[in-house]
Amino acid sequence: MLTLPEQFLFAVLLIASLYYAYLGFSEVIGVINRGATTYYPRTNHPVARLRDAIVRTITQVTVFRDRPVVSFFHSFVFYGFIFYGLVNIVDFIEGYVPAEVLAPIHASIFGGLFRLGADVFGSLVLIGVAYLLSRRFAAEDPKLEKFNPTVLLHPGVTAGGIRRDSLIVGCFILLHVGCRMLAAGSLLAAEGHNDPWQPVASLIANVIGHAPNRIIGWHIGWWGALGLVLAFLPYFPRSKHIHLFAAPARFALERRHVDGSPVPLGALEPLDLEDDTVEQFGVERLEQLRFTQLLDPYACIQCNRCTNACPAHATGKALAPSAIEINKRYELNAIRTEFAEKKIGSRPVMEFVMSESALWACTACGACVEVCPVGCEQLTDIIDYRRDAVMTKGEFPQQLNNAFRNLERTSNPWGIAQAKREEWKNADTVAPTVAENPDFEVLYWVGCAGSYDPSAQKTARAFAEILNHAKVNFAILGKSEGCTGDPARRAGNEYLYHSLATGNVETLNATLLDEKLDPNKAKRVVATCPHCFNALKNDYPQLGGNYKVVHHTQLIEELIAAGELPEMILDEKFTYHDPCYLGRHNGVYEAPRSVLTGGGKAGATFAEMPRNKNNSFCCGAGGAQFWKEEEPGTMKVAENRYREAEATGAKTIAAGCPFCKSMLASSESAGREGAPVIMDIAELVAENLRKTKAKLGLAG
Amino acid sequence: MKICTVLKQVPDAEASIRTSGSGVDLAGVTFVMDGMDEYGVEEAIRLREAGHTAEIFTLALGPRRFEEAIRTSLAIGCDRAIHIETDEALDVITQARVLADAVKKEGADLVFVGGKEADWDSSALGPALAEALGWTHLDWTTKFVLTGTTIEATHDTDAGNETVKLSLPAVITTQQGLNEPRYPTLPNIMKAKRKELRKATLADYAAHAPLTKIASEAIQVKARLNKILSGEGPETAKQLITLLRDEAKVI
Ligand code: SF4
Ligand code: SF4
Ligand code: SF4
Question: Do B187 and A281 lie within an 8 Å CB cutoff?
Fold first, then answer.
């Protein structure tokens, strides 16, 4: 127990510390409260949310998704810290309650287990923090804080803010736990015996030697451990270690559909475009963000995993998704009090969050969101800033101007006449329109690429051939199909997207649904373009379009399983590139692989790229990049990916997206003699079909 | 200062135009603001942004469907618009006389109009308008600077270009290269809906009898020869060259 003056002093300091911590935390809450509400519910199904957030926090699954070694040591610190919450409370009680009173508890098995826990977890925390600090400061792991030179960073960051913050917190933990261990060891030393429940503390006791006066060590240790907590509490809301609270809160507040099911990671918030008194579209300043986007910078632990995964950053662009959250955080720290009190707004985000080149370098691939251990939505921010640039300010890369005009005038980004939409068909392509075949079962959404891009037209023809062979009763929309609006939406032009999309929803509702618009009775729609697939499946429900959407690889997989198509065995080595909007954004990883490998029979003929499935590396086309020059960097995104594919030794790179196909094929290396070719899965399947027919001696 | 931007609404350059009978069938065609006129609208807005105090109004003569293009000009930044609605197919000179009357009534000092509008592909509207107004004019302008009431502008000539000085009032015809027309922002699109779009009829302006009447229309159809060369590559290439040189006389 502490002496009376000690008890008094601690109580005073505790109250002061709690007061300042309270001020800090309420500022943070004030900041987050300034954010707008979101379209997707954030608090429905509270029990499931809480449960999932706790499970995710306790199991650390999202942390372990990447960097296994670091995550392992981080888990030491994490579990140790949780236990140390209890330890601190018990220590506090021991400071105020005479030892005799607590003796029976100490002697019980619970007391023993508790001491063992404190001893073991304390040591683990020390090991973990020592590892993490050495990684940052001694080994200087390049994954941390290694930004491309063109990345815009907040002055607080360039001044070494992240390192200082890490050092302060690291030292706090080392000293806090170290003092606790010293206190435990000194107590044993003063009591003159070792404790089998506390092997490490016993070791310390033996080192300092057993004698009653060693109790002074307990006092020093106690103050060191709990006194530091008092000093640290007010610092907490300023440091990145607020992630301890913010991250679990972020998990609990993740977006979900009304029925509680998860929302795909790339989903975008709709805007109110009807209200003509609105003068601001998208986000120009922090206070225009949604509240979760203001929580993100507090949840962000500044680990840079997202930046390591970002295709734009990997190819030398000015974009670093982690910098978005970090810069927001440093700005918020700087203006927190007045901002939280709604006295001021922030500076325009383009002055401190990211540069213009960074804004337009994003491929909307979603790798950042996927890898983030705390659930930040960097992509939503980027699109919100783009919305401001395009719709409110009219300042955006010139080439997008052409794409937008084309979309407005011809309903496709290429600017080719709508009247030519069916010209992908050649003389022997059978693909009736809905008018010609009103009793169709499956609607084939050809998409602009399939309609106009010569390389994607091949895919469309191959797919029609497949459908016909498998006797699928299908139809196309022909001239009543228009761009889904995906390129406009991902470029921030929600207005243009909206006008394109509402037209399509109207057509699709009339084509796929009965009079009651019952989505359960909807006919299916299949797309050969993952951007179309994603728009139809995830964007259109916001506009009242609820359909059963499949990607062509899913339908082909089904047809093979039903025996309508022969299984495909490729005899030359091949690899498969996951399109972001099929894989990461929609979780379709297996269907294309199963089609390509004959249900897994391909063995070593199929070579996975090192970055695959949810960790796949973008081709560089998404986020409207296809319609503009790539931002300055050290390499083209497509080139980076193509080299990875080539390094597998594959002769064929299978793709499931017209834009991936086109991007990879236009990369520098793809132009070399004998370089692997890129083909859509539909083309491969159709080729296989022809071969099989020839083998069986069947005519055409 | 008052600036007038004259504009027309024409079929989008990409639109496939069908013929029906002896004329064109415009049903289902996407119409847009004439691309050359758009440079004039943009230039007017830029003048104001460069610090000239100016009221900018759009002036259009044509059928009801022109409204959409007029709204676009308002969204780009014109303050108000006058739409002289008519379904009559007037010749360019008559159009110019009606427009000139309107320009005078509004008291404009400077008129921008496209160098060659995609409806009849005539480059005459600007010069005819200047003539009707009795103003000086400069066509095919690619660079335009206004200081006080003095214009210093560069325009294309057959042999190259020249830079000239002229003073207000003037009619300027615009073309590609003058500027990059902006994409209207959403708040401006919203505001454009509330801006004044005054409707007028031909009767509101000094009567001008059309100078021409369309007597008949015919679509020029050129049949293809459908000649297919056969044989080995190099040999067919030679044949092709002979044909292009001797028969078609294109090389
Ligand atoms: S969406 Fe992709 S390109 Fe954009 S910031 Fe995230 S990782 Fe980078
Ligand atoms: S946003 Fe997420 S992944 Fe990126 S640095 Fe922050 S915590 Fe790490
Ligand atoms: S999203 Fe689909 S419809 Fe739109 S441009 Fe892409 S391919 Fe065309």
Answer: yes
